[in-house]
């Protein structure tokens, strides 16, 4: 008994994540939109991807894709965002959108790292847990992520519920998650 994840960059995620193959696959389609929607003041980007995947008639309704803001192959999200304050709506969205949220080690405190032409070592630094807290760029991010995780953990609507877009503007985004008798409205304001 184990859970199997596949790293899939493009293609039809259903061909890999199904009863015969994998439990889930990486949701690269939403990965970029999580941070670039904030950088470009364009929530329409991530809203389009979420609606396409999980909205009415969505391609992946009911499929729990592995959602992430960064990983071992891409720049750390703290290095990708133009404004550090956008880490909070980004992680709120990651924990509220359909799928399985994932935090890459160190990102919960804003560890920086960019891929360079000759190496990607900065994406996977050795972290000293005894001093990480003192040197962390965004120590106050961890309590927020813990709060988002606790809310998600206690909500069937956030874990497995349906998705319905309610409002999309350049810097505002709202959607409904519903499961059984529970309904939650998620409202993001990046302004």
Report on the architecture of this protein.
It is a single chain. The chain is built from seven helices and seven strands. It is of the alpha/beta class and 191 residues long. The strands form three sheets. Strands 5-6-7 form a three-stranded antiparallel β-sheet. Strands 1-2 form a two-stranded parallel sheet. Strands 3-4 form a two-stranded parallel ribbon. Helix 1 (28-39) packs antiparallel against helix 2 (43-54) and helix 4 (87-96) packs parallel to helix 6 (141-153). The protein starts with a strand and ends with a strand.
What's the arrangement of secondary structure elements?
Layout: E1 5-6, E2 24-25, H1 28-39, H2 43-54, E3 66-68, H3 77-80, H4 87-96, E4 100-102, H5 129-135, H6 141-153, H7 156-160, E5 162-168, E6 172-179, E7 182-189
Parallel strand pairs: 1-2, 3-4
Antiparallel strand pairs: 5-6, 6-7
């Amino acid at each position: 008994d184990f859970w199997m994840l596949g790293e899939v960059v493009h293609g039809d995620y259903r061909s890999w994540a199904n009863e015969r193959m994998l439990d889930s696959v990486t949701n690269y389609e939403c990965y970029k939109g999580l941070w670039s929607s904030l950088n470009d003041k364009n929530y329409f980007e991530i809203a389009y991807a979420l609606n396409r995947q999980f909205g009415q008639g969505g391609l992946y309704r009911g499929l729990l894709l592995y959602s992430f803001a960064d990983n071992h192959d891409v720049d750390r999200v703290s290095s990708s965002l133009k404004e550090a304050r956008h880490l909070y709506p980004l992680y709120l969205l990651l924990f509220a959108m359909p799928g399985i949220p994932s935090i890459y080690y160190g990102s919960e405190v804003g560890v920086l790292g960019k891929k360079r032409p000759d190496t990607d070592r900065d994406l996977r630094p050795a972290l000293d847990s005894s001093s990480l807290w003192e040197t962390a760029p965004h120590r106050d991010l961890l309590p927020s992520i813990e709060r988002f995780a606790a809310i998600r953990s206690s909500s069937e609507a956030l874990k497995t519920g349906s998705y319905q877009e309610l409002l999309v503007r350049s810097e505002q985004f709202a959607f409904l998650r519903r499961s059984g008798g529970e309904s939650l409205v998620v409202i993001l304001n990046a302004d």
